[in-house]
Amino acid sequence: FKYFKRIVPGLKTIGVLYSQNTASLIPASQVVATELGFRLIAVQVSGERELPGALDSLIKTCDGIWSLADPNLFSPQATRYILLNTVKSGKPFMGFSRNVVESGALFALDFDYKAIGRQAGAQIHQILTGSKPTEIAVTSPDIIWFHYNEKTAQRLSIAVPPDLVAVAKEVYR
Questions:
Q1: Most CB contacts within 10 A, which of 4, 6, 27, 105?
Q2: 28 within 8 A of 7, measured Cβ to Cβ
Q3: Structure pTM?
């Protein structure tokens, strides 16, 4: 949400589609959004048939759309539908991976999977050298990549801040 705020400074309301698969992420997301001054509108979708109506309602009421990596919602066909409709309506869409950005989302934050493997290896090393798994702290990824789609930014008349452009792992044109 911090990146969304930096890239689209006037953003006040963020919409998100979710299914039962990702429902547990919504309460914590609501808290974070509120702390950052956003209103998060979350719409649960049970299947792809509900997707057009749910997306339509978010497009009408939100300044931007955020996505969760939800396999129940993001089939190739559904992803294409979401991307086409968010761009057509002028709504910035934050994807959940570089692949979604390459397909047309404005931007995404993605993990460095090599770094995650390194972190996991360090934890395994601790276990192999005598630490109990319960003694090892839970960690979060220490390297996250920023990806953005320059073509989408231009279509939406959004200027990605220069410092983010400078550190972008991938820029899609």
A1: 105
A2: no
A3: 0.87
Q: Which amino acid is at 161?
A: P
State the DSSP string of the chain: -HHHHHHSTT--EEEEEE-GGGGGGHHHHHHHHHHTT-EEEEEE-SSGGGHHHHHHHHHHH-SEEE----TTT--HHHHHHHHHHHHHHT--EE-SSHHHHHHT-SEEEEE-HHHHHHHHHHHHHHHHTT--GGGSPP---S-EEEEEEHHHHHHTT----HHHHHH-SEEE-
Which residue shows structure tokens 């995650």?
116
The amino acid at 102: E
Q: Give the C-alpha separation, 11 to 94, whole Å.
A: 12
Judge contact between 94 and 4, C-beta under 8 A: yes
The structure tokens listed for 41 are 């509108």
Hunting for tokens 């939100």 — which residue is that? 62
Model confidence pLDDT, tens digit, residues 100-144: 999 999 999 998 889 889 999 999 999 999 999 999 988 888 899
